[in-house]
Amino acid sequence: MFRLNKEEGEAVALLSIGTFLEYFDLMLYIHMAVLLNELFFPTTDAHTAALLTAFAFCSTYLLRPVGALIFGYIGDHVGRKVTVVITTTLMSLSCLVMANLPTYAQIGISASWIITICRIAQGMSSMGEISGAQLYLSETIQPPARYVAVAMLAFAVSLGTSAALGLASFVTSFGLNWRIAFWAGATIAIVGAVARTKLRETPDFADAKRRVMNASTDENNIINKKTRSQLIRKEKVNQRTSLALFLMDCMWPLCFYFAYVYCGNILKHVYKLTPEQVIHQNFIVSLVQITSLLLFVVLSYKIYPLIILKVKLIISSIIIMTCPYWLNHIADPFHLLLLQSAIIFFAADAAPATSIFYKHFPVFKRFTYISFTYALSRALTYVATSFGLVYLTEYFGNWGILIIMAPICIGYLIGLRHFEKLDKPGAHMMIKPIGAVA
C-alpha cells in the first residue's frame, strides 16, 4: 500500500502543487500561441507564419541549457529547496510582464522581442523547477513509493498543461480578454513560491554536505581538508549513462510537439478551424494525457517502471511509424483528434522511471547533469522538430516526419537498454551509498 509519513506527504503536495502552477504558466502561452502570435508578431504569409510559430515555440527552450547550468550550480552547491523557490518566483514575474505587455500594433517589433525574452526566462526557470522537484522527492522518499511520488510530478505537469488549455479555451470561447489568463497565472505562481519556503532540504544533499564539513574539520586525517572536499565534489559521472538519459529525454518533446503544435497547425491551415477551436481540441488531448499519466503512475507501484517504459515504447513506435499513412488518409478534425490522443497516451517519456535514472549520478553533480541533459534534449529536439518539419514535409510530404521520428525512437530504445543493464528488476531493493555512480 502507498504510504508516506507526514513530512514526505507535505513535500509531495507542495512540490506537486508548485509544479502544477509553474507549468500552468509555462504552457499558457504555448497553447494560446495560435491566437497570441497574431498579436505580438507581424502578419505574414503561411510559410513565414509557420517559421515564426516555430521561433516563438523554440524561444522557450533554446536557453534552457543555460538555465540548467545556472540552476544546476545553485542546486548542487546551495540546495534543492532554494532552487525551486527561485524558479517559481522567476516564472511569476515573467507571466506578470506578459499580462501587461502592449501588442505589436501598439509598440511594433519591441513587443515581439519582449515576449520572446519572457518566454526564454520562463523556459529557463521551468528547467530548474522540474529537475529540482524530481530530485527533491527522489532523495527524500524510498522505493517503491518513490516511483509513484516522482511520477506524480509528471502528472502535475500534465495537469498544469490541461488547466492552461482549459482556461485558454474558456477565455477565448466567451470572448474575454486573454490577459485575464496571464494575470491568473502570475498570481498562482506567487502563491506557489511562498508555499515552497516551508520545504526542508533533502536528506541526500544534507548528508552529502555534512560529509564535506566533516572532512573539513577532521584534523587527524592524513588527507587535508581541501583534498577531502574535492574528492567528494569531483565524483565521476558515467558518460554513457548521461548519453542514455539524453536519448530517452528526446522522445517526449517529439510526441508533444507533434500532438499539440504540428497537428494544431493542420487543424488551423488544412481544416480551417479557428484558434479557439484548435485550443479546444488540444484541451481534449490534454485530458487524454492526464488519464494516461495517472494510469501509469498507479501501475508503477505494482509494476517495475522500466517494464512500463518498454511497453509504452513498443506501442508508441508503432503509432509513430504509421503516422504519415494516417495523416494522408484522415479527412476530418475528429480523426486527427484520435491520432493526437493515441500519440499522447502512449508517448514514451521518462516517467515513471525518473528516480531510477537519477540515482546513477553522484549527488554533488546530480542536479547539474540531470537538468542540463533534460534541457539540451528539449532544445535540440524542439528546434529539429519545429523547423525541420516545416521543410521536410514541404519536400517529402507527411513521410518527411519519419526522418526525425525514426532516429529518436531508436535512440530511446538504446537508452532504455542501457538502464535495464544497470537496473535489473528488483535492484530497487538495494540501497546505494550517497554519491555512488553506476
Largest sheet: none
Name of the CATH superfamily: MFS general substrate transporter like domains
Q: Tell how many strands the DSSP assignment holds.
A: 0
CA-atom Rg in angstroms: 22 Å
Mean pLDDT: 80
SSE string, helix = H, strand = E?
HHHHHHHHHHHHHHHHHHHH
CATH class annotation? Mainly Alpha
Fraction of residues in β-strands: under 5%
Helix content class: over 70%
The N- to C-terminal Cα distance equals 30 Å
Helix tally equals 20
Shape annotation: globular
CATH architecture: Up-down Bundle
Number of domains: 1
Low-confidence stretches: 425-438
CATH fold category name: Growth Hormone, Chain: A
Structural class: mainly alpha
Describe this structure in words.
It contains 20 helices and no strands. It has helices at about 5-30, 35-40, 45-60, 65-75, 80-100, 105, 110-140, 145-175, 180-195, 205-215, 225-235, 240-250, 250-270, 275-300, 305-320, 325-330, 335-345, 355-360, 365-395, 400-420.
Overview in brief:
The chain is an all-alpha fold.
List keywords for this structure.
438 residues, mainly alpha
What is the fold's blueprint, element by element?
Blueprint: H1 6-31, H2 33-40, H3 46-58, H4 64-77, H5 80-100, H6 104-107, H7 109-138, H8 145-173, H9 179-196, H10 203-217, H11 225-233, H12 239-249, H13 251-269, H14 275-299, H15 305-321, H16 323-329, H17 333-345, H18 354-358, H19 363-396, H20 402-422
Helix pairs in contact: 1-5, 1-7, 1-8, 1-9, 3-19, 4-5, 4-7, 4-19, 5-7, 5-9, 7-8, 7-19, 8-14, 10-11, 12-19, 12-20, 13-14, 13-17, 13-19, 14-17, 15-20
